[in-house]
Amino acid sequence: MYHGIHPKGYWQFVAIQDVPDPNKPETWVFQLQTTWKKTTEPENLTDEDIASLGKHWNRAEGMGEPFKSANLWVPEGTKISVNKMAYWVPIKWDTRGGRVILAGDAGHSMTFQRGQGLNHGIADAANLAQLLQSVRDGGRTKEVVVEEYMNELVEGAGEEVKMSIVNTDMLHDWDRFLESPIVKAGGHANQTNKIALEEQRHREALANGGTEPNP
Ligand SMILES: Cc1cc2nc3c(=O)[nH]c(=O)nc-3n(C[C@H](O)[C@H](O)[C@H](O)COP(=O)(O)OP(=O)(O)OC[C@H]3O[C@@H](n4cnc5c(N)ncnc54)[C@H](O)[C@@H]3O)c2cc1C
């Protein structure tokens, strides 16, 4: 799986879905997903326009390789689906005495570019199972443990939803992407850490009224 960022504000993700014969790449099935902000394309386009193969090929024209060819080679007649990204930051809900439980995307739908939705869903299931075990084994009440579960979900997954929004936003903004450590340091761990430390010092300096903190 890999992804690409386009200066015009497109983001693309290419993932292998199926490998029927490892020795015959022509049999492999790929998924291509392009995302962009509402403001990147004209407002009056219908879903049908957006999903037309012609528009898809136009978007591909400005891409670098291998994205350009991967998109241009999508054959005539391929159906393209349109989706709108949605998210919500979870808030506490009425658990009705521990009987109403939200988990996974139902509890914390998030944008997918950071790839954390399923991770958090699995964490929800693990947390909940452990807490419910403590009802069975430890004499705790269902009301109390579900309340505890909800508080952890609202805090942990809530934070992730917000971080995912920032990440999605950055990936569709070329100028901000150029400022990211991956561009500035090329993914080199030491260099990336150095940049992160410098940025942290800069933020602390600003918080301290403009003076550099002591090293
Ligand atoms: C392109 C993409 C890439 C992603 N990549 C990652 C990644 O790399 N890492 C990661 O952690 N997460 C990733 N995610 C997020 C992840 O896919 C979701 O967070 C996860 O699938 C949510 O699981 P879920 O069981 O909570 O919800 P869902 O997978 O949405 O399952 C809900 C199920 O309920 C069914 N349903 C709905 N209504 C009813 C009804 N009334 N009656 C019966 N059934 C119903 C639906 O059909 C569906 O099968 C990605 C998401 C997308 C879109």
UniProtKB/TrEMBL annotation:
Source species, domain of life: Eukaryota
Keywords: FAD, Flavoprotein, Monooxygenase, Oxidoreductase
SUPFAM superfamilies noted in UniProt: FAD/NAD(P)-binding domain
Cofactor(s) in the UniProt record: FAD
Residue ranges constituting the FAD-binding domain according to the UniProt record: 91-143
InterPro entries with a match to the protein in the record: FAD-bd, FAD/NAD-bd_sf
Entry keyword Transport: no
The protein, known as: FAD-binding domain-containing protein
Species lineage: Eukaryota, Fungi, Dikarya, Ascomycota, Pezizomycotina
